[in-house]
């Protein structure tokens, strides 16, 4: 599943720098993402991986640099406008509405395409109701396509789902906004090998059904990094150490020392 190297660039970052007081969490990072490409982002704890996603999605305003989606500058726009333009994400820690049903969590993901606001819902119930019914229908369709298990549980409160299904639900909710770019922040964290394998298969299926969708996946799980992305970007202390095919970048001494070495040392700890 290799994206054509000449596919058009859909998302790019140039000179991205993010300072928090005296801390430089990201320094002059450039990246490009092409249509249909899967870009893995790896690096040790605190490397700046989530910061990069937070900049791209408008949660953080970079101290300098710019982000362009299909050539249009998007940094500085509020986060909801960026979602509406076609960038969706999941978070490192769950942001599901645990009391709401699985289905309603996906309906919420569609809200960027719904015209009725709260006031509409109150004043023009007819139109709002029809729109909500349509959103629920589309959400159910999406759930069924993403995971039959989730679909079967669509009326259960999200909090009752096992962890792996909650992760799938977050991905389904992000897809409900019909994104061009999907960003996943450590989707397999806290999962065992079997759940991780099942999740990888689901991500592959999601991509196969949407060949144009571009993905950025932050990952700690090296198996996922080795098997899923077309290309990886390695960060360390907010700097870009390398960008290329996993088989190539893993051989670069600086990368081995900074990431693989430290990771291996962590794993070797009793
Ligand atoms: N809102 C913030 N305010 C202050 N410092 C922050 C903020 N967000 C991130 N940082 C700091 O920026 C650095 C990069 O953090 P970031 O969360 O991007 O790392 P990460 O690569 O995602 O790490 P992890 O693997 O632990 O998730 C860290 O030193 C972190 O403490
Ligand atoms: Mg992070």
UniProtKB/TrEMBL annotation:
One of its GO terms (cellular component) is plasma membrane. Coiled coil: none annotated. GO terms for biological process: D-alanine transmembrane transport; L-alanine transport; L-isoleucine import across plasma membrane; L-valine import across plasma membrane. Residues 11-262 form the ABC transporter domain. It comes from the Bacteria. Keywords: ATP-binding, Nucleotide-binding, Transport. GO terms for molecular function: ATP binding; ATP hydrolysis activity; L-isoleucine transmembrane transporter activity; L-phenylalanine transmembrane transporter activity; L-valine transmembrane transporter activity. InterPro entries: AAA+_ATPase, ABC_AA/LPS_Transport, ABC_transporter-like_ATP-bd, BCA_ABC_TP_C, P-loop_NTPase. This is ABC transporter ATP-binding protein. It comes from Methylobacterium planeticum.
